[in-house]
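Issue: ligand-bound run for calcium ion - logging full I/O for the record.

Environment: standard queue, default settings, no custom constraints.

Inputs:
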Amino acid sequence: MATIMIVEDEQAISLLLKYNLEKEGYETICIAHGNRVISAVEKSNPSLILLDWMLPEMSGLELCRIIRNNPEYKNIPIIMLTAKGQEEDKVRGLSAGADDYVTKPFSVPELLARIKTNLRRVTVVASTQKKEYVFQDIRLDTVQKKIFRGENYVRVGPTEFRILQLLLTNPRQVFSREDLLKEVWGNSVYVELRTVDVHIRRLRKALNEFGPDYIRTIRATGYSIDDHEVEE
Ligand code: CA
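Outputs:
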């Protein structure tokens, strides 16, 4: 069974989460201090992390960046928990590498649904039959869960990996934002269309460090991977 790490300094919320997650059959690890998170992740290798934004000693945002920059832990799904509901904070959280974002006060059933979806996504990628996708100098290895561009290793988060994998299943086909949401995030979760753009930007930035931009934005429609110029 999956182990969920709860990083939250408010004991009432931490206990509420622990109780509900254990009722669903998950194992839990509760951490209240920002500076204990990394060593706890090393020790327990959790399946998913619920990460509070406002923490003593170290912010959730900072922790999110540290985890994402560690090749060993960068694929662990992270759901940010925060009292801040503003759009710019959400974008900041996602830019730091969070996979999902829940605003306090949250509904327990909704949070549980999001946890399930984020865990399932990891499994879907792991069980994909095709082992490798290649387009020009881009190579996505589903076994190693790594992306290469020529000889270079391209670092991306799990969401960017899934987006690229989907685009690579059908090069030159245009995927709408709705398609991407459905295939990458799943049907059961409400994610704004803008979130897709945030992750595409991140994917593009990582890939383009090593070569030309093959991700096409088709205005008002969606995205594709293509080596021909596309009229926008
Ligand atoms: Ca807090």
